[in-house]
Protein 1
Amino acid sequence: MTTGLYSVSFKEARGNRRLAFAGDLKSFETKAFEAAQQAGTAIVVDVWASWCPTCAAQEPIIEKLTSSPEFSSVTVFKVAFDKQKDVVQALGPQRRSTLI
């Protein structure tokens, strides 16, 4: 899994259909998110920050989730807390790392 990626569009993330990076609220509402919903896959939205120790502790779990065949029906969208404030505000997480 790549970390530290803040504004990658879904077009750039299409190579890995199970891991997408939301660039802003507009791209978060694109066809990739809708396609995951329509496909009936479980969707995990990981709101994270590079300075957050809880986020760092969760990273191996999310890595396993995106690479394990048992979780092939899970799509993970990562949202950078510091860089994507419009998405964070729309989702509502506060001070802690949040999985939705």
Note: The first helix runs from residue 10 to 13.
Protein 2
Amino acid sequence: YPGLLSPPVVVRSVVSGQCRAALTTDHSPFATVSVGFAGARGWNVPQPDTETFAADRKTFERERRRLQKSLDAIADCRVKIALLHYPPQPFLDILSGAGVSTCVYGHVHVNSLPDDEKLAVFGETLSGVTCYCVACDRIDFTPVEVSAF
């Protein structure tokens, strides 16, 4: 999706307000925090009685497997952040089960269909995962600060 990419997301410690690398050497509570980023494209929930149901279901299930595999790779990280293109609501069971604290996603642009608009949350906690829709036009093409730990 060239041209539709969201700006970078800056992850900061809410305790100190300073940017932190994956591993730090000071004596703060986050001195040995490992931060893992995992992600997948995601997909819409397949709708029965549509001509695309079979293909959508296949894609949806593949994206669930990809997300789980990606999260498995960061299982040992203390802080887990998920990056998706599509909204995370259909994947919250996987995200929550893997201990993801934060999910950043796009896809739901300004003036989307009403059912899609409901999926555009910013800073709301869903099933224990704080979610941020950062579609570029929703955040005025400006990087936003996301607190992940």
Note: The longest strand covers residues 35-40.
Protein 3
Amino acid sequence: LRTHLGHIHKHQHQTTAINLNPESQGMHLETRLEQLDSAIKMELWQEAFKAVEDIHGLIQLSKKSPKPSLMANYYQKLGLVFWKSGNGLFHASTLHRLYILSREQRKNLSADELQKMASRVLCATLAVPIPASRNTIDQLLETNEATMEKKRRLATLLMLNNAPTRQSLIKDFVKFNIIHYVHPEIQNLFKYLEEEFHPLGLYDRVKASIEFISNNEELGQYIPALEEIIITRVLKQVSQVYQTIAFSRLADLIPFASKFRLERVIVDAAKTLELQVRIDHRSKSLSFGTDLMVAQKEDVPEGPYIQSMPSEGIRNQLISMARALHQAIERIEPKDRKVQRHEMQVQIANSYRMTAKKEHQRILQRRQIIKDRKEQLEHLNDQREREEQEQFEEHLKAYELEMDRLEREAKERERLWKMIEQLKMTDIGAKVLQNLDEEDFATLDVENIMAKQVEQLEKEKEELIDRIKNQEKEFDYFARAKRLEEIPLLTKQYEQEKKVAREFFELQEAKKVGYRLYKVYTMMIL
């Protein structure tokens, strides 16, 4: 989606450009907001920042101004991303934008909500680290194109033309009178840290406000940063009053900081030239303003200020003396030196005019080369992202296929075990599976089980046929022997039955003859 949207945005001025309708833009925006919420819940902050960039690109791509509720949600999520990345400056700037948007657009904003938002803006603004005190030359030497581009890119996400600074945030804080709406317990915190000069009693003045912030769930996250600011303020104010101070005395002024933490802040302050300080571990003391060769800065120091360090006063006197000597040299300088310098200036100007066009062309070519390389890098990055996406999809597909295969095998094994249990309950199955162990069951499949079952049935069938044949043979032998034994008995029985039948026949014949004689005799009598 990000690649497709980038191509659409890149080629939007061409004749074949794709014109996204408001519905498509709204769906893209909802998708990115959902992705941002998911990334924040999963604490994937790099993905969250990419989603923020996509949302900003969609907002810029849309022709209509976004809804205030959408912008408020956008600023809330962006502020969280900045805070997790450790960028307190842009986190505070995001809260400033959210506060101004809520005051201007939300008509139903309650006093309690306004007070919470203002208090959070105050804590976030004061928690921004104090910038390094650099003179103009140091700023030019340390400011490179990559750093400026990063700041411009982050400022663009906040709809700002220029990158914010701690000083600009404080000016906006005063301009919009935000201090009037914060909690009464912390209203004096801004005055103590940014306006008044109290090196020996600063902690006692801000102690109540710090305790209130630490007990507040929404503001408690700013306590470590605020403590760093308090330590730095005490150091800078003490450096304007004392030339030497015992380390134990300084630790008493900041009781919440351990000695290790205090020494780390002192070293960081000396490294960034916020103040000139040296730690003497033998005497366990700190010395301020001992280096006369290093300029702290060229304008008034940041924060509460009462006077310069002694080293700054001496250095300013040396600068004034150097300027006076330079003016004296210019007054007593011979005219031929002035003519020679003028001729050199003319020669340099003529040389520049002769090479200006060529130099201009070289700069244009260099700009074109940089642009081409940038496009090439974007193309390579897009190609690399596509390849990585394809590889990820291939791995995901292979993983899904492997999981499907394992799931099928698991289901097949489960079905096989159920079949084995059912077979064990039958006589044939028990005979088939009685000689198999767990390893054999693991290697068997349905076809092997069916083949073994058929083989067992065939074997039992053959045994039954052989047993029947043997029984038929035994029965045949038995029947033949029985017939042989029956023949004499049957012959004897036949003779007896024949004799009895003859006697019965003769008796019946005699009865018939007697009956007939009786019938004739009776007729003769009648």
Note: The chain has a mean pLDDT of 81.
Protein 4
Amino acid sequence: MVQNSSCQELLQHCRIRSARSKRRMVYEDWEKKLLRLDRTTTNLYTQIRQLGYEKLDPPYQRGWKRSFILRNDTALGRQATFYQGILDKINTIAYSHRKDFKVKKRIHRKRVYVNNEQHLRQPDLNTFVKLKLTEKEAALFERVTSYCSHYKKMITRVKKRNHELESSLAELNRYITDRHLRPHIYKLTCSRGYQYWFENRKYEKSPLLNRSLSDILNQHYYQNEENEQS
């Protein structure tokens, strides 16, 4: 004991690290490297997300989109703004690569194209309250007549890309994935392990475990009697 204490005092006096301290120092340096990798990855994601869009000249078409519009007599009437406000709140938009908006469907073991019906929004009570319709609009809500209109879906802008940022990000992700560093990074940054919420379900104890069938039936019998008496 005296020799061990003297060795420890000598190590502390000479500032010589022990084997355990050296291993701990290497481990801490590795964790710091992981944190730097995580910060660099987050910074690259932020820069790519903030690149924004650039306008295309000329724009190109990618499929078709369809929505409801007002009738000609309603659109040219005095209350066009009123009805347009209602339609904007319940309108829907459908996208398709076909101009006729037909979809494939299997009928009698054959794939045929059928019409894809499109409807206005059918809000429930909570959604209807969120629409914030006035009393006048709510009274006419059921009477709105709508028609389909087909028009081209034009792409007017495209996401900007920086190949250097994307290459650096892909290289970092490849480095982290190949060495299985993602779980430890999550543990360092999110203060929790890398696991899914449903993994612990297999360890849940069943309430019927190690119980005989007679005990289970008696328990249900007495519970039913108590419910009938109450």
Note: The chain has nine helices and five strands.
